[in-house]
Amino acid sequence: MNNEATVAEWIGRLRGVTSHINPATWPTATLNRAPHKALLLLAVIDLVDSGQLSDAQIEASDALVGRYEQLWRCALPGRTPAGVVEPFTHLVSDGFWHLVGPNGVLSRETALGIRSLVQLRATIVGAAVDSQLFDLLMDPEVRPRLRQALLETYFDSPARDRLTAAQPATPPDPRRSASYWWVNQGVTYDQERQGGYVWASKRTKTGREIAHHTNVGLLKPGDLLFHYARRAICATGRVTASPEDAVRPQKLPEGAWTQKRGAWTQEGRLARIDYEVLEKPIPLIDIPEAWRKAEGGPFNAAGAVKQGYLFPLRPEFAQRLLERVQPAKGPAPHKHRTWIFQANPQLWNLRAALQILTHMTWLVNRHRDEVRQGDHVYLWESGREGGLWASAEVLTDVEDLTDRPEEAQFRVESEPIEGTCPRVRLRVLRALSQPVPRQALKADPRLAQMTLLRFAQGTNFPVTDEEAAVLKQYIAGQAPPDSTAASKSAFASLLETLAHEGLHFSEELVANYLLALQTKRFAIVTGISGTGKTGLALAVARHFRPLVRGLRPDPTVTSAVEVSVKPYMLGYHKLVLPKALMLLYRLPPRGGKPSAPVNVRYPEGEAQLSVYHDVERDVVHLTFRERFRSWFDANVRVGDSLLIDVDTDPDGENDCLRFALPSPALRVPLDNCVVMAVRPEWTDNRGLLGYYNPLTQRYSTTPALDLLLRAAEDVEAAKREGRAPHPFFLILDEMNLARVEHYFSDFLSCLESDQSLHLHSDPRIEAGESDDARAVPRQLLIPPNVFFTGTVNVDETTYMFSPKVLDRAFTLEFNDCDLEGYGPGRNSASPQPGPLHLSGLPDSLVPDGRPSADDWDVFSKLDAKLHRVVLDLHALLVPDHRHFGYRVANEIARFVVLAADQTDGSEKALWAALDLGVLEKILPKLHGTQQELEELLRQLFEFAVAVGRSDVAAGMLKTSGWKPDRGGLRPTLAQGQEDAPKAALPRTATKLWRMLRRLERQGFTSFME
Prior knowledge:
The protein is α+β, with helices and mostly antiparallel strands. It has five domains: 4-165, no CATH class; 177-325, ph1033 like domains (ph1033 like fold, Roll), CATH 3.10.590; 338-475, ph1033 like fold (Roll), CATH 3.10.590; 550-666, At1g16640 B3 domain (Beta Barrel); 841-1005, no CATH class. The chain is built from 36 helices and 40 strands. Strands 5, 6, 7, 8, 9, 10 and 11 form a seven-stranded mixed beta sheet that branches. Strands 12, 13, 14, 15, 16, 17 and 18 form a seven-stranded mixed beta sheet that branches. It has a seven-stranded mixed beta sheet with strand order 21-26-27-23-24-25-22. A hairpin with a 2-residue loop joins strand 23 (595-602) and strand 24 (605-614). Helix 1 packs parallel to helix 8 and helix 35 runs antiparallel to helix 36. The longest helix has 19 residues, at 703-721. The N and C termini lie far apart (67 Å). 35% of the residues are buried. Residues 169-177, 255-262, 327-333, 479-487, 552-558 and 825-831 have low confidence and may be disordered.
């Protein structure tokens, strides 16, 4: 029960929230005061009431924004709701509302500088509410009093009545009736699953209850849980008994919510669960982002999983998940069958359709009563050059359907089928770039009896389960067991590509580079000249370059000028006619007026618009109106292409402007890589990001900025399409020809802080109000799907890196050069491939945020020995004040965890990954004189040789006990011994040996040589 004095104090503070008073602006409905803050606080109370908000860190979620706008319309009918950003940021002035970014609480100046909802969500994690106020919000007896105080203080009687009427008579609490729950278990999953329970503490040490913990007490027998761990739903569970009070199980590991030991009491609640482990876990990325954003609950405004334990789910969302987990309950389910649907190339251009269409309508002449929704289909093209092209899923039962308009262009016959016919709708699951030829399948003895290969006439053919399993192998690109070709992982395919292009890199070096990019997004590659540093970066970028849909012009538009749709066109509904078009188009007579009517033809008809000649800027604006405006808004987005041509009448006079939309064409490789050669004269970021020219009042862009803008557009497109963003690569060649701190410092800061880069201050450039320049935003947040690589050579013409730069990157060395094994057809003399074979490398590099304490937590549970190595190394560096901080610890942890996920997870793989992490994150910052470094480097060398081992001879702890051998070290007394002992961290020890040798010879040493 809350203290009455505390309640009275907070009611007073809510009544005293600062708000602008202006009778000329605000009506009596809001007592002549700005209602923004009061309405936002009322929206927060409503979400708490409905169970959608249970965390003291409040996000700018779609649910909160929607409720705020609903309340605005109730209070001020007929007045367009003001954006939620203003109250969300300005509440920081009232002392109980603090905006929290990834690196802590934002200053008042930073908070008030946020102008848009997109910027708000990109900048903050949430708003932290005073814990005392939040406790009152969680109290169902106090909430109505807080609401009433806001209503009485900021609204007149009629407005109060409307807002009160908008409240449910009895606000539902879905937590008390929920049958479905989402539980975040992380590292506690294995122990809780083995014990058959879920457990959460009742309250914090300060006595505060947290809803996502106390929800365990609301579980009922029969409730269904979705168990989330390792970034996927791993199991479902049924509650088998009512929750009971229980102390924390002794073997339960410390999870993400218990990292601060002592923050929670040992008293808690435990519910018995019958776990059912999924044969194939459901990764978070496979749950559409739109579903997650709409659900709220366990998901934040961006659709990511919140920190917390147990959250209720709406039945609709849970049912969607169940459809992916198990078949629907009820009568015996239909056993899904597999079919081959055959296309005749003289009637239907299947291979062209697969380049563009993701859904198709397909004729079903036979087996009409057997083909059912959910069945699997393989698409086949008949003829000598035909074969197996794609796999698909049946979306509908057979019914009378017509062709879709987008399918007409792929019909080859002179007279298309008219009217309805028995058809099904298909969704293409996978399409091949080349078909599996008929001869290859006929040669496979397991397909000898397949109906299509024996009787080729027809459209629909049944396939047995055994035949379907073989076809699945072919469509997945995997050769059958009796074939000479072996299936390849993404990593093996990349290695093969590198070898084919004449790039000679060890398996470990390629794996090291890929893990570094996935961990940090910024890798510095140093080494002797001519080893292929830039070549590897380019090859990786090409390997992860997806095919995307290109565009082809409308064949009826011949001399069209292509225009890129810019923000101002959709915002202001006007368009600057390109100068290239004005060479063909004569303005109509204006009769001395600045504007004149013009006829326009577009795909949905004709319209009369107006043109306006801006003499000062020498540009001609075309202003949209009515139906044309509606067509434009409905059919184009920023970044799309638009074709404009001039139609002339028979007399040769200009008649009208003609608009057309390009059609999707064959898939083309995404332009996702830029190489920027760094120039010695770069003293600021203009060489990378361009600059605003005050004389021309235009922004001069660069290839690097264009890449960042394309990547940002792809992030937005990925959100709309429910897919992961495509990767983009920026390669800075000869990165240290100029001082990196001068031209790259902005990037370093923004990569770490998620702050925006300031580009310019001209709103017209941001809107793209020019026919020959792209729209450039005033502030640019570095897109999360851009990976940076800097290549480095060290000589008298280059600059050294400062420790702050090296601290923010992974620094890789390319110094090994195996001339004996160099050249086509030669056997490399380099060592056998090491343990870092990334068989689990994903097909695309998907950004996963910055390394965090969660990675450190997973790493600490992954292998206790590895964790102890990092702790001991940190302790060794502390006395010399050379130790590393949390960021480096998190990055090493992420690097090792990724290696565990993408290799076989063996002990050798984990130790190799840790060795590389130490080498590339700790050693690069060590540079100095013999007096400064010699003792520390010798201690580090002993550490790298002997850590975790007890069988190391005293002589091996000195550099004199080792000598270089094929890029590594070999004990001096072990010449010719294949099983000679090795250092515990051999890569780190080798580098320290070389650094010590330079120190002894030159009196100075550094990581880069």
